[in-house]
Amino acid sequence: MKLKSNYALLFLLLSQVLCAASSRPNVLFLSVDDLNDWINPMGHSQAITPNMDRLAARGVTYQNAHTAGSFCAPSRTAIFTGRYATTTGFYHNQVYHFENPEIVPLHMAFHNAGYATYGAGKLFHHAHGFIDRRAWDEFYIRDDELKKRGWGMETWKEFHHDMLPDPYPASPYNIGLGRAPTNGFFLEWGPIPNEKEERMADTMRTNYAVEVLQRQHDEPFFLGLGLYAPHFPNYVPQKYFDLYDRDAIVPPVYLQDDWDDLPEKPRKRLAERRSFQERIENLDIHKDAIRGYLASVTYADAMLGRVLDALDASPYRDNTVIVLWSDNGYHLGEKMNWGKETLWQRTSNVPLIFAGPGIARGASLETSASLVDMYPTLLDLCRLPQEDGLDGVSMARDLRYPERAQDRAVMLPGTEPNEYAIMNQKWRYIRYRDGGEELYDVCNDPHEWTNLADSPEYASVKRKMAAEAPSDFAEPRRRKHRLNLVIEGDDFHWEKK
């Protein structure tokens, strides 16, 4: 009798475990590249983003979320490892799955918990060899030739030459320079024929994600989709350009003497990039450049709409957590800068929207957050065990009860040790490795035009913000140029040089 009772108890426990596993929500992990806060849910009325609006209406939008790395590679590494560069030493283009293969990345945590894992597009850095191929049931590569070169995420120049505008380069910025643009496509924009939309790399990756959502899934799934847009080049179908009246566009404002109160390091870097803004001003094409960016934002929004439509038409609509994020922001003339890799607001502030079961609807949060928080948050929302060593904090409670959320300080590491920004709702404190400092009252100075770091009355604010930084900074690990990428058929691996 006792044996039967034990069997009954074991059966009950096993049933509860299986029930809990089957009820775990799916995850739709959606990334866009170089998208700053220029979207409607974050108050930028120039952008036409109906699908981001639609997602925001069914979830929680963070107004003060910040990247965990000042450009693509360290940001995405921090997101997938759940750790800042100050912990790992991955400040630049290090390959985390070679340097520290024992770290359990986000998708592997879900795979280990019994999830089916699917990926497509730019989730990791786009260069050859950066995709962490471990623990994916499927990772879509749109052209098998790319597998023979290390699974790169080329979007324009490789294998699809006929997708480029004719003539190339297309933007007034690059026409007449007598050379290809910097990095091939920097400050490049222009329309392509509408009929080519289905052959665009981002469209093909989106269609793969749609197809995955149309399948029957007997186990929970983690589906990641990374769009390259609105990263340069801003080449999108003509219909997206047609949505924007060039003459009605309002470019961002800046001050000619904004650099006067900056420390030497950022002032020197900006001086190296001054020619970008000067050429744009001389050609009077600032509005044209903004139009190209906005057209690409709306194209990315349309791709997100396809995925949301597929989810809404599937049996998984009510049991799927959706996360939309961008790897970093982007300067479009603010502080007379074009690009990223700064510690200012325009680089750090990024879209972050959560929606799904257990998440409030139509809420907007002003409290600070970091993209490293996505890892522990998703583990909480999906009832997975937490991983040891994560730097982020779970936001699951704030997503359920946004009215109870409290502000905190978050960090943006620079590209080397002892360099960082600390941000909260009111302040941004920046420290460079050479000791240079910046302090901005972002409530009263949202453009970060007045550096308060040298004002004695703000010394206590600086101390308080600096106290949030790590006491120790990891030394940088080997960068990509110190490794060899070895191709073996459709496979690859890294070796030390």
How is this structure best described in words?
- This protein is α/β, with parallel strands linked by helices and 497 residues long.
- It has 15 helices and 18 strands.
- The chain has helices at 2-23, 50-57, 72-81, 85-88, 96-99, 106-112, 144-147, 201-213, 238-241, 264-283, 286-312, 345-348, 374-381, 396-400, 459-466, and strands spanning 26-32, 59-66, 116-121, 138-140, 189-192, 221-226, 234-237, 320-326, 331-332, 338-339, 352-355, 363-370, 410-413, 420-423, 427-431, 437-441, 483-488, 491-496.
- It has an eight-stranded mixed beta sheet with strand order 4-3-6-1-8-11-2-12, with helices on both faces.
- It is globular, with a radius of gyration of 23 Å.
- The relative contact order is 0.18.
- The model is unreliable at 7-21 (pLDDT under 50).
TL;DR of this structure?
With 497 residues, the chain is of the alpha/beta class. The chain has 15 helices and 18 strands. Mean pLDDT is 93; it is low at 7-21.
How are the SSEs ordered, and which strands pair?
Blueprint: H1 2-23, E1 26-32, H2 50-57, E2 59-66, H3 72-81, H4 85-88, H5 96-99, H6 106-112, E3 116-121, E4 138-140, H7 144-147, E5 189-192, H8 201-213, E6 221-226, E7 234-237, H9 238-241, H10 264-283, H11 286-312, E8 320-326, E9 331-332, E10 338-339, H12 345-348, E11 352-355, E12 363-370, H13 374-381, H14 396-400, E13 410-413, E14 420-423, E15 427-431, E16 437-441, H15 459-466, E17 483-488, E18 491-496
Parallel strand pairs: 1-6, 1-8, 2-12, 3-4, 3-6, 5-7
Antiparallel strand pairs: 2-11, 8-11, 9-10, 13-14, 14-15, 15-16, 17-18
Helix pairs in contact: 2-11, 8-11
